[in-house]
Fold each of these.
Amino acid sequence: MPTDIASALHPQATAFPADLTTPWRSKAPPASALPALLQADGPGQPLQQAFEHQRDWIDATVQQVGGVLLRGYAVPEVAVFRAFAAAFGHALLSYEFASTPRSNVSSGVYTSTEYPAHQHIPLHNEQAYTREWPMKIWFHCVTAAQAGGETPIADSRAIYRRMPAAIRERFAAGLVYVRNYDSDFDVPWQQVFNTDDRAQVEAFCRRAGVQWEWKADGSMRTIQRCQGVERHPRSGEMVWFNQAHLFHPSNLQADVRESLEDMLGVDNLPRNVLFADGSPIPDSMLEEVRAVLDQETVIFPWEAGDVLMLDNMLAAHARTPFEGPRKVVVAMAEPHGNLHQG
């Protein structure tokens, strides 16, 4: 894809150039057009005007490039961001079947993952560990960190193409995610399902094709077979679409992994992922996956007021460690998936 695709689509919008001498991006693969940049005409221009004047361009660019960064617009409160995201025509989604802790800021708007500042969150497509996910995701930087705290992104099509063929083929057969919910080691099931009513949890699991088991101590275990790669419903392009490298024990620090395996046993780890046939995924394969993700990573610094809109299947996102206060909020919309596939 040419680096000037965004400017070709609309004269007021530009894609980040490929050479890294620009201050916009600190890291990017050659010829990457992600994200396209839409800048305000001047200070104080309301964010809603970007929707009113540029909606067609934004929609087209998100579908082609994978994401648009809106910069320089006035976003005086989170409610303005919420209205902008909702204006694209789909009700904002609640964060169901969560895998990380978040807080509800307002209806349909959540904090970004509430992990400690020193931790890195690897690239992932939102809720790719399930069989239903949002097609659209928006991020709004309310407060930029003093250092770090970027939201790296990557083209999921490019990841798929770069991934070694043998790994692509193995993942195409599907994955099985295993989760053991225990408040001592991970997010408890009450927070994951937004309820303490077991009947509601079971109803969700039946609808979503999730196997479940209640344990004697009141905790819960779920198993779900999901996709490893997917075809985009509009473009027909294949994308790398899973969270195997996050759920696999190799994502843990070596000493933490060893302690958990000794304490709980491999079958009772808070989370794990297996091949569709139930066989373990080798650590070495996940290292190859992580290397490809790193090669496709795009990093740019946040500025307060920025809004990033992504096609959640075309673009993955992450978080770097940071120093100082940081506030980034998230909204999601347009559910899509393959709930009826086994």
Amino acid sequence: MQIGFFDSGIGGITVLHDTLKILPYEDYIYYADTLNVPYGSKSKDEVKKYIFDAAEFIVQKGVKALVIACNTATSVAIEDLRIKYSIPIIGMEPAVKPAVEKNENINKRVLVTATALTLKEEKLRNLITKLDNEHIVDLLPLPELVGFAEKFDFSEETVLPYLKEQLLEYDLNKYETIVLGCTHFSFYKDMFRKLLPSNVDIIDGNMGTVKNLKRTLEEIASLNEGSGKITFYNSGIEVQDENKLRKYSELFKRLDEINY
């Protein structure tokens, strides 16, 4: 049986990339909701409908687990999905906990970047309230990064000026950690590094999600059933066009090249 991966677009490939390192002998479905991306600027009700439509499609393929490889989709719908479906459903969470714990004793701040919808959702707000006793967490929406990624635009000429402008009001020397709270953002980790002081860590929740998936599959005794094959779907249509498949392959190569 396959493992399903879902994201509003290509961001979840950063999670699948890490998954292949840990679980290379599984088969995967990757579903990108390319007709409706981006989610972060849409209403919660609208996004929830898209998520449930995609989840139903993936579950009907007979997957043994479903990874919601999208922070926005997780924050909007993960609990309702777990009520509806009996298979394990693994979600994403911005890596606020490790960032805050790391910074507790060094009097530095944490900057959490994500989509606007993720940042205003109760799930994240409750997490920050629970963990941020010293009020060291700042929030920064970076919606244009999703658009750049969906256009396969990874050029420094486009992205660096945008990031510089968004980070301009922050004294980056006051920060120890920046959290990439949207899976799309991890494609730009190398560009964040160019703009940040060398001591600032850049972290995301991807590997925590992968470890959770592996642990869950071990608990249900359902590991190592495939060969690493990935079947891609764009909003329910299987991707068979060679040019599109080559673009997906190039994304994995980019992640390897930036030492992700």
